[in-house]
Design a protein that fits this description.
7 helices, alpha+beta, single chain
């Protein structure tokens, strides 16, 4: 049996080395420096409990303006990408149902993330591949402020796709695998 690293430590390392280090998200560096990212481990083997935890994190963000965003690391129960997508759909619907549409946005990441219409081994998928399945709960207002000061934000996805192509699938896969393994 493989010995996996701590999900929260692996996720923090991924955010710092990949997301910020490669500027995959040009806005994340500021939040890492400000220590305004909240990391929460969630056992998603009970989907109802995981969805409740998502709502609780919305409540937490409602009460704590200093926390710009929450990364919910789904450490159990969603290793299968299709199962992950099913629960993600429920999570997005729940945010709307709870009145959080336009207040919080849910970004999604998974070790086997695959964009629709993209080959499974396409490097572009690595823009959304993470060491663990996760939901990134983002304040819409903070995102809008960041986008207003960033030149040509529409170009970010294509810039990231080109970066992933340049890095190559093998290097990206090795880097991601290293984050999940204990050293």
């Amino acid at each position: 049996m493989t010995d996996f690293a701590d999900p929260l430590a692996a996720t923090r390392a991924w955010v710092e080395t990949f997301v910020v280090g490669l500027e995959v998200c040009p806005f994340a560096g500021r939040e890492v420096a400000r220590d305004s990212i909240r990391y929460v481990e969630v056992d998603a083997s009970d989907p109802a409990a995981a969805l409740m935890r998502l709502v609780e994190e919305c409540w937490h963000l409602d009460q704590h303006a200093e926390a710009e965003t929450t990364v919910l690391v789904l450490s159990e129960g969603l290793a299968d990408f299709d199962d992950y997508l099913d629960l993600l759909g429920m999570a997005e619907a729940l945010l709307v149902e709870q009145g959080y549409e336009g207040i919080y946005q849910l970004a999604s990441f998974h070790p086997d993330y695959q964009f629709e219409g993209e080959a499974e081994d396409a490097p572009r998928n690595y823009t959304n591949r993470s060491p663990w399945p996760m939901w990134h709960l983002i304040r819409e207002a903070g995102l809008e402020r960041a986008l207003a000061h960033y030149p040509d934000p529409e170009a970010i996805p294509e810039r990231n796709a080109a970066l992933m192509e340049a890095k190559g699938r093998e290097a990206l896969a090795a880097s991601l695998a290293a984050l999940r393994e204990r050293s």
